[in-house]
Write a structure and sequence with these properties.
Shape: globular
Number of strands: 23
Strand content: 15-25%
Radius of gyration: 23 Å
């Protein structure tokens, strides 16, 4: 296992950790060494948390979200907000430790075959919040749902990334779900078979899509599964006490049946959806929130406050052009749009939260290659702001398309920062590319994602967060037919690289695979498949007395199991 641990050390990096020694212990925030997803509030009240805090024993953590939870079904959820809550209430085989490495969770032990193709997991003695035991069958049921074409999970592809045996054929409808390479040998023994070895397999097992689901409970809940406290079970550190889809608040309390409950210090977590950053900060100052995210002018105002923390995240924000829309199939037009807006002004003058300019498709500090260097260190930059070149491309596009004017609508989620960025891009394009008009259509994040996935859009300002620490977590999105390939771009040479890097010859040669992924990124950028904008940084206020929150740039962004609140 020594080599495996060494290879895993390159994954799940850029982790900021507030360390913890015991409940109520005082520690100084530290930043771990660095080695290396996406989706209407009824009210935005600020006084609701006090009662919940008392109900949770006086030490519930009050946390702001700026978007709603889209789904609490682990095989259906696709966004970071939902993943965070799912990780609070549900636990898979692995979790992510404070340094960003995979650590055993529901799995008590693991045996790995010499060829790296078979993992045998022994499960802990654990139970669901209704008292039934967590068994290997719960994982088999959940994973079969993940790849079942009838379920049509948007995250079925992650089973292919994990190279679970027969996953691709099952997703394609060529084999039945019972042929998936996952077997319950007995209640406490889960056997997983892979098509090819995957060096980051154990890290993937911490991702919410691989969390277990109790089949009997799921069947009883039916279509309402995961929509209320009565229709979801917990085997994690917390359990759901108040929730409904699109609600402005979510309440969790400590789960007394959790196998490691003795180490959970918080009495619960109260989430409040507050989209306006000024309203959120007022709630924080009033003592109704313990954790809040800042934006824009607020960052400058509070950055010297001892409760202020700046954290680099892994999210890439970009504009997706729908190439089925007339005009956007033209490369010169896409190049013009991609180069026309000032990214530096966006991160420096609008966001001010530590975000950085993105002239790439694969973020910085995501993954380290066989050469020991970050992917971006030895890879070029693309689509950098250049107003003159943008205008030249626009003139060529006008000639090729036979038009002098064009108008497109860009869909944008209703968060404050997204709207501010979109308005700036709108102004930049209309100013620097005379004749192009950009209209903005604002909607809740869930609706924005649905529109992108259905192809009902022209331009979309969107984001992607890394599910695992490898460039493939971004690059396979633009493979032909991938549900996250919103622009419907297709390139056979690109597809061949991606498939070979997943399970072909490249998968067996780490150095050649790394070089091929660099070529794949260049193909995407040279064809302006997306227009990158920025890599997200987070400016966060955390109340003094709150310790032990873990911030991760990959997978689950915030973990609260070891958090304390005085």
């Amino acid at each position: 296992m020594g080599k495996v641990k060494k290879r895993m050390a390159i994954f799940f990096s850029l982790v900021m950790v507030f360390s913890l020694t015991a409940c109520g212990g005082k520690n100084t925030p530290t930043e771990a060494n660095t080695a290396a997803t996406d989706s209407p509030a009824a009210t935005e009240g600020t006084g609701e948390n006090a009662g919940a805090d008392n109900a949770a024993g006086g030490n519930a953590l009050n946390v702001q979200f700026d978007v709603e939870v889209a789904s609490l079904d682990p095989q259906i959820a696709t966004d970071g907000t939902s993943f965070e809550v799912l990780s609070d209430i549900t636990e898979g085989l692995y979790t992510i430790d404070a340094s960003g490495l995979p650590a055993l969770a529901m799995a008590d032990g693991v045996q790995k075959s010499d060829d790296g193709l078979t993992y045998t997991f022994t499960l802990k003695d654990a139970k669901w919040s209704n008292g039934t035991p967590v068994t290997a069958a719960d994982f088999v049921f959940a994973w079969r749902r993940l790849v079942d074409p009838k379920v049509a999970s948007e995250y079925s592809f992650i089973a292919e990334i994990a190279n679970i045996k027969n996953a691709s054929d099952i997703i394609a409808g060529k084999k039945g779900t019972e042929e998936l390479g996952v077997t319950a040998k007995d209640d406490k023994t889960l056997v997983v078979q892979l098509d090819v070895p995957v060096p980051f397999f154990e890290s993937l097992m911490a991702f919410p899509s691989f969390m277990p689901v109790n089949e009997a409970f799921f069947t009883q809940a039916g279509d309402s599964y995961g929509t209320s406290p009565d229709t979801i079970l917990s085997n994690g550190a917390f359990k759901l006490t108040s929730y409904e889809p699109a609600a402005a608040s979510i309440t969790l309390e400590k789960n007394p049946d959790y196998w490691d409950a003795g180490k959970v210090c918080l009495g619960g977590i109260n989430y409040q959806v507050i989209k306006d950053s000024q309203t959120a900060m007022l709630s924080y100052q009033n003592g109704d929130l313990d954790v809040v995210t800042l934006s824009g002018e607020q960052v400058e105002q509070f950055q010297s406050d001892p409760e202020f923390h700046n954290i680099m995240a892994g999210y890439l924000w970009y504009i997706s052009p729908n190439q089925k829309v007339k005009g956007l199939e033209n490369l010169n037009l896409r190049m013009a749009l991609a180069l026309a807006y000032d990214k530096s002004a966006i991160v420096s003058n609008i966001l001010k939260d530590g975000s950085i300019v993105a002239d790439f498709a694969v973020p910085t500090l995501l993954a380290t290659g066989p050469d020991g260097k970050d992917f971006r260190e030895t890879t070029g930059t693309y689509l950098s702001t250049d107003r003159k070149k943008a205008l030249d491309y626009w003139k060529k596009a006008q000639s090729e398309l036979g038009v002098s004017k064009l108008k497109y609508t860009m869909i944008v989620e209703d968060t404050e920062s997204a709207q501010n960025v979109a308005q700036f891009i709108q102004s930049e394009i209309q100013t620097n590319l005379p004749g192009i008009t950009i209209e903005l259509e604002t909607m809740p994040k869930k609706n924005r994602v649905e529109r992108l996935q259905s192809g009902d859009f022209e331009l979309g300002l969107t984001r992607w967060g890394p599910d695992y620490a490898d460039p493939m977590t971004y690059l396979d999105m633009w493979e032909t037919g991938n549900p996250n390939n919103y622009g419907f771009w297709s390139n056979s040479d690109y597809d061949k690289i991606i498939e070979s890097a997943k399970k072909g010859d490249l998968a067996l040669d780490p150095s050649a695979r790394w070089d091929a992924l660099k070529k794949a990124e260049k193909i995407v950028m040279d064809d302006a498949v997306i227009f990158p904008v920025y890599q997200k940084g987070d400016a966060v206020m955390i109340k003094s007395g709150v310790e032990g929150i873990e911030f991760h740039s990959v997978g689950i962004n915030r973990i609260y199991k070891d958090a304390t609140k005085k």
